[in-house]
Amino acid sequence: MDIQRKGVGRRKLIRRIVVATVVVIAFAAITWGLSRLQPAAPTVERATVWVDTVKRGEMLRQVRGLGTLVPEEFLWIPCTTEGRVERIYIRPGTIVKKDSLLMELSNPQLENDALDVLYQLKAAQAGSIDLKVKLQSAKLQQQASTAQLQSDYTLGKIQAEKDESLAKLGLTAEINARISRAKADELANRYAIEQKRLDINDESVQAQLAAQQVQVDKLQALLKLRMNQVEALKVRAGTEGVLQQVPVEEGQKLAAGTILAKVTQPWKLKAELKIPETQAKDIVIGLEASVDTHNGVIPGHVFRIDPAAVNGTVTVDVKLQGALPSGSRPDLSVDGTIELERLPDVLYVGRPVFGQANSLITLFKLDEQGKMANRVQVRLGRLSVNTVEIVEGLRIGDQVVLSDMSQHDSQSRIRLN
Q: Fewest Cβ atoms closer than 10 Å to its Cβ: which of 114, 130, 190, 408?
């Protein structure tokens, strides 16, 4: 017969409670531990990212822009009058001289106007000669009239003196002497007046001839203008160079001011660079530059900065120094780099894909083994084309990922394979 032990049931209950409690505590501990674990870092192929090392030393600040080669000097040839293109003698790409005939225009109305002015000028010149002859004839008549009065005055004076002498001797009446003296005085006055008219006659002649000459000069100037306009129908280069553009065709009717051709001097080229507006603020005239024509690099310097920005860029003109590489021609695409300054002792690294000057960004910094990279905050300073100044967040020798890592923005670390 089994004897029931006292307290056995109670001990079993206590053991069950203890086991359950331990299980609950263990489960809670495991859950808490798992919650504290970080998610697995994504793996990135090292060959697909750009890694650079932080350095200290001299940093060259530069800005870069795309552009084209353009002539320093060029000549637009406009149409000075209305006309029709009769014939084009030279096509673009041809080397021309100053008097090279490019094309010929026609304008019958202009030629008729020039001929009409020519006939008016000839008539004015004939009228000038006729006026001169008439004035000379009138002067001769005036001189003859003056000479006649002088003679009459002389005779009247002699007669008056004679009658006065006879009157004193009592041989003639005193009244006759007084009449003779009155006639002599009248002739004297008339002679004096006629002499004054003769004296001012020369001034009158000169004034009339000058007025006629003004008309002749006016017609001569107008004829010269018309002849120049007619001559301008034969369009010439006007300078040595290469004919670059002829934007008209034979038979085309043109208005005054229409561009007929463009002549450039391809041996005198400059580079027009388009610099981003945010980077152009530090550019000043005189800075050194280099222009890559993809067939050689040409040194130069900045000599003009456009005061206005267009589509987010500023045009900077670079004067080229030295011989141009073969194949250099107007409108050739080039890459230009402008040197802003040299920073003698700064902490710097390669320029990341994203990041502006004096801004705070995050980069992935590699650990000592180079297998893992943790995200760190980095404050940038001054920018250059390929490098950027580090203000804080990195030290000499640190390696950072500079590639576009936007796809891992949610990750605090990555694994490099």
A: 130
Nearest by Cα to 63 from 270, 271, 283, 272 = 283
Q: Which of 135-144, 250-259, 266-275 has the lowest mean pLDDT?
A: 135-144
CA dihedral 170, 176, 180, 183 (to 10 degrees): 160
Residue 403's alpha-carbon distances to 52, 143, 301, 364, in angstroms, are 10, 109, 33, 10
Amino acid at 355: G
Spatial distance between the Cα atoms of 287 and 281, rounded to a whole number of angstroms: 13
Structure tokens at 190: 């008339």
- pLDDT tens digits, 110-151: 989 999 999 999 999 998 888 888 878 877 787 777 788 788
Q: List, in sequence order, every beta strand (DSSP E) within 128-217.
A: none
Residue-wise pLDDT for 318-351, tens only, equals 999 988 888 888 889 999 999 999 999 999 999 9
Q: Which of 345, 342, 348, 344 is nearest to 390 (CA)?
A: 348
What is the C-alpha separation between 92 and 96, in angstroms, rounded? 10
Question: Which secondary structure element, helix H or strand E, spans residue 292, and what is its range?
Answer: strand 288-292
- Would you call 355 helix, strand, or coil by DSSP? coil
Strand order in the sheet with 241-245: 74-78, 259-264, 241-245, 95-96
φ and ψ of 124, to 5 deg = -65, -40
pLDDT tier at 1, thresholds 50, 70, 90: very low
Dihedrals φ, ψ of 183, to 5°? Answer: -65, -40
| Pair 71, 319: CB distance under 8 Å | no
- Report the SS3 class of residue 309: strand
Residue 380: Cβ-neighbour burial (10 angstroms; 0-12, 13-18, 19+)? buried
Name the pTM for this structure. Answer: 0.58
DSSP per position, 40-72? PPPEE-GGGS-EEE-EEEEEEEEEEEEEEEEES
* Both structure tokens of 337: 């780099």
Extract the tokens encoding 286: 């005189």
| Residues 352, 308: Cα–Cα separation, whole Å | 29
Which of the 8 DSSP states describes residue 282? G
Tell me if 73 sits within 8 A of 267, measured CB to CB: no
Phi-psi region of 311 (alpha: psi -120 to 50; beta: other; left: phi over 0): left
CA 162/CA 411 separation, integer angstroms: 145
